[in-house]
Amino acid sequence: MNIVCIGGGPAGLYFALLMKKLNPNHQLTVVERNRAYDTFGWGVVFSDATMENMRIWDPETADQIESSFAHWDDIELQFKGRTIKSGGHGFVGIGRKKLLNILQSRCEALQVRLVFETEADSDADYPDADLIVASDGINSRIRSRYADVFEPDIVTRPNRFIWLGTKKLYEPFTFIFEKTEHGWFAAHIYKFDDQTSTFIVECPEAVWLAHRLDRMSLDESIAFCEQVFANNLQGEHLMSNARHLRGSAWLNFQRIKCEQWSHFNGRQHVVLMGDAVHTAHFAIGSGTKLALEDAIELTNQFKLAGAVKSEGGQGDESPAGIDQIPQVLQAYQAIRHIDVLRLQNAAWNAMEWFEVCGERYCDQLEPEQFMYSMLTRSQRISHENLRLRDKGWLEGFERWFAQRARAQVLSQTQAQPDAKIGVGAGEGAKEKSPPPPMFTPYKQRSVVLKNRVVVSPMAQYSAHDGVPGDFHLVHLGARAMGGAGLVFVEMTCTSADGRITPGCPGLYNDTQREAFKRIVDWVHSHSDAKIAIQIGHAGAKGSTRRAWAGIDQPLQAPQPAVPEGEQAWPLISASPQQYLKGVSDWSREMNRDDMDRVLQDFVAATHRAAQAGFDWLELHCAHGYLLSSFISPLTNQRTDDYGGLLANRLRYPLEVFAAVRKAWPEALPMSVRISAHDWVEGGITPDDAVNIARAFKAAGADMIDCSSGQVSKEEQPVYGRMFQTPFADRIRNEAGIATIAVGAISEADHVNSIISAGRADLCAVARPHLANPAWTLTEAAKIGYKGVVWPAPYRAGKPQMETLFERERAAREA
Hints:
Mean pLDDT: 93
Shape: elongated
Number of helices: 27
Helix content: 25-40%
Strand content: 15-25%
Structural class: alpha/beta
Number of strands: 29
Distance between the termini: 46 Å
Largest sheet: 8 strands, mixed
Radius of gyration: 31 Å
């Protein structure tokens, strides 16, 4: 085959040499606009895994790179006068010029034709080629030429960065954060040879503009950066090798991903590779890694196609022919797309962390927690993964976290027994190892939780006339004994017409109060868990069947054949609404009398909750129920003082909150559940959620329970593990109020990562608790933590479970 690679970066050069090595009869040409052995840039970074992959495919190149690279395991943070270091991270750094020179030399040795100082404007310049590899970088002309085919999605990010170098050598991969009068600057620094380190400076656009960096020359920008990081540089200078660039040396990162990676132009096939088809932010140093692995996978697909073409099974492989190029390119995209998307998502998370850290983390977090947050910014590295990388550092962090948690509880608690506030609630206190963060105590007002695990409020549809019965005693009692610190009752309705279904519990009469008191007393007598009530009104989403009889389907209209308790009732909400278009019953708009009556229903339910002995109360303002219907512009079209701007839409929910807070005992905590994202254009956004949280905080809320969606059936949520945790993170660290994270939190590793990074204060675990009432005890055994206390009747099972999980861990390690 005749193959032309347009662009002489890592992707084009490495693919050319691998294909030439695969079949010396191939004609390989690399076209590069720069001069031979002349390039720009500082160091590039890729992982140990990429290096191992390169060694498999071309040991000669790997040997040369290995003899020239800088390798480090440590990541070092310099922040607020502290230096913190963690090991086991495994990176490789090499000068970009050195890497390209190695690849160029290897290409020449294999007789790849290198053409320098040539601008390749189009694939049409090479009509005789069978395959054009467009490895022409982030500003790819080939991609632009066929944009309608490749469908590039290009997103320009807000932060500004400048790529510099210094003769000061940094042994670890180093991050430095410095605060100026206008905001925070971050430096990403790594050594790539025995003389030079890369020094990338990054800041938000607003900070960049405030310092008038947009008006500075390159030399003035360098001098400015030297001043910002003077304490670290200690007289060393920063350098630039980007004087050939036009315009500002400060850049905005562009995230690129393409829907289609290849195209037949009528003469030959064209395929994108490296930055031409995808980019990943330097926050996890992966652009070069992606480029090299693209080259490896496309070569691998040609090799596999040759093996398929060969017949006889004697081990001889025929070169893949021109007729097989389409299937090769299809397989290349199918395989690489998954790996690239996974890494791009991680890079996106890391990039966003740096974009918001000045506003969200730098001032709020102590250095220890800031380091943890930074290390786990991509969400690829979890709590237990950190333990594998650097057990000593993580245990030191866990000890710091546990001591801080205990100190915060003790500072507000007088003469509480250790069983209520202890680090491990008894047995844990005897252990030398600190408890995982999920098993540290937490206090709100007078209530101390033994750990950070919450059983989410989950509708069970099993009450009769709003009265919880034996089912609820068993259901809630089992979960209280299962190890969680706080157990929530499902949404409990403030009136009969405020129920979702006929099977929903209520607190609108004394019979219901006494039934709940029986459950609360049992939980307090038989466990050390706290129990919470969530009160709400279904609004336009009420009067529906139990979930298993048709979720969200309306009840039948009153008629003799329908039992009285199963008949539909009138609905009210902020504005007239039909939740399921053409299916649900219409609600009517609430008038002032309705609002006053509903408010008093909430107050009465609150008094009953206090009389029943609940430890915690939550006001339900989420998921399209009545109070949520006022908050979301999707469901509130009122033209009075309760509609329009967010401040007006919050008016009635805040009136209800104020009345409930006044009725609820001062010493007991109160949280508010909100939908932090409607997932519908024109609905509530995460920006709005921060302002909603601030409003409830000002009104006296202790915590925000951060859920999302279920306001409109037009929603398009983006699911994934811990997918709602970013809302809790943002609200906690921007609105300055404690949060509960909820949504696809299913294992101890998730809880520990969230709590450790300061993304939330508590984690609500839902469906896993339906499958396993003792989820918390099980997860403790699974991660090898023995410091939890089991209920006395069940303790005989504790060592057996711990031993079984120990055997499983040993088998996996073996």
